[in-house]
Amino acid sequence: MTKLARPVTRDEVSAYRTAGVVLLKGVLDLAAVNALRRCIDDAVRTIGESPSGYDLSALTRAIQTLDQATLENASSGQHDIAAIARHIKSTGKPFLQDGATGKGSFILDTGIAARLRDFRRLVVAGAMPEIAASLLQSDEVRFFGDQVFVKEPGTREKTAFHQDATYFEIDGDQCCVLWVPVDPVTLESGVMEYWRGSHRNGKLYQPNVFVSQAPLPGAEGEMLPDIEGRRDDFDIVHFDVEPGDVLVHHYKTVHGTGGNATRYQVRRAASIRYCGDDIRVTQRPWAPRQLHHTQQLEEGQSLSGPDFPVVWRRGADERAA
Ligand SMILES: O=C(O)CCC(=O)C(=O)O
């Protein structure tokens, strides 16, 4: 029995392959959207318990406004704010902010499925695995990981253009990222923008710290071109979305978002990643540590074990045609 509100069409599969991104309108039902919204709100409410939760706006403000002594004192056990500040300053790359009031926060958390049971149930047993299966065309689909991204009204911080692949310690073609909004989102409130076709240019780009093009410490890869500064030189697309819609991109498609310049509209979304058969483990020592992972996989291995559960199997979970 399908859990989708409607099937994914052949045209949508071919758009995903060609453009590296596709908008699936109205593919989730109201119950799924409401359940995900509750989970995102829970994740934000309990962010203090997360080993990987950040208020990126507060971090940016601390770095921009405080002196070194204060930064040293502000370093919590969870995040070494002073080290992050020193690194960003040393690259000379500016923070990417737009004209919003600055009253809101950009909140980011990783690994919610490992700490919130309802969230895990949704990403492992809800409608999302079926979406991934339709697009990846794989015999098996495994859950790979998740983040939530919340931009409150008045959030200035953009999400710098980046490519997910070099944050992940995997290689291959069959990895897709579902960006699932639980609010209406437009360019003004920070919808995703994608460099269409960039998943096929054969490049692996240096990952950055999200609020700036400053690369992650020790990161290897090509330097991303200055998309923020020369937008017209790139085929950038965006899609306004509503709850029930899902945007899916290939993990090598370059993308980013603006701040949230609205006065009242919060922008909450979950980013949920799935892998297919051809994905293999590779070492990327600069990749953010996945503190919730319980196992260490070796270079070249397929994904396996409880961190990467099988969420869909051809035959067993396939919808009857
Ligand atoms: O929501 C955002 O601001 C960024 C999301 C993102 O980069 C992702 O889902 O891969």
Outline the secondary-structure elements.
Elements: H1 10-19, E1 21-24, H2 30-45, E2 54-55, H3 56-65, H4 68-74, H5 81-91, E3 106-110, H6 117-125, H7 128-136, E4 140-151, E5 159-162, E6 170-171, E7 175-181, E8 192-195, E9 236-238, E10 246-250, E11 255-257, E12 267-275, E13 280-281, E14 310-313
Antiparallel strand pairs: 1-10, 2-3, 3-4, 4-12, 4-14, 5-11, 6-13, 7-10, 7-12, 8-9, 8-11
Rounded mean pLDDT score: 91
The number of helical segments is: 7
Reported by name, the CATH topology is: Jelly Rolls
Question: Do you know the CATH architecture?
Answer: Sandwich
Write a brief caption for the model:
This protein has 321 residues and is an alpha+beta fold. Helices cover 22% and strands 21% of the residues. It is globular.
What does this structure look like?
The structure is a single chain. Helices cover 22% and strands 21% of the residues. It has 321 residues and is an alpha+beta fold. The protein has a single domain, classed as Jelly Rolls (Sandwich), CATH 2.60.120.620. The strands form three sheets. Strands 1, 2, 3, 4, 7, 10, 12 and 14 form an eight-stranded antiparallel beta sheet that branches. Strands 5-11-8-9 form a four-stranded antiparallel beta sheet, with no helix packed on it. The mean pLDDT is 91. Bound molecules: 2-oxoglutaric acid. 2-oxoglutaric acid (AKG) binds next to β7, β11 and β12. The site of 2-oxoglutaric acid has 9 residues, from β7, β11 and β12.
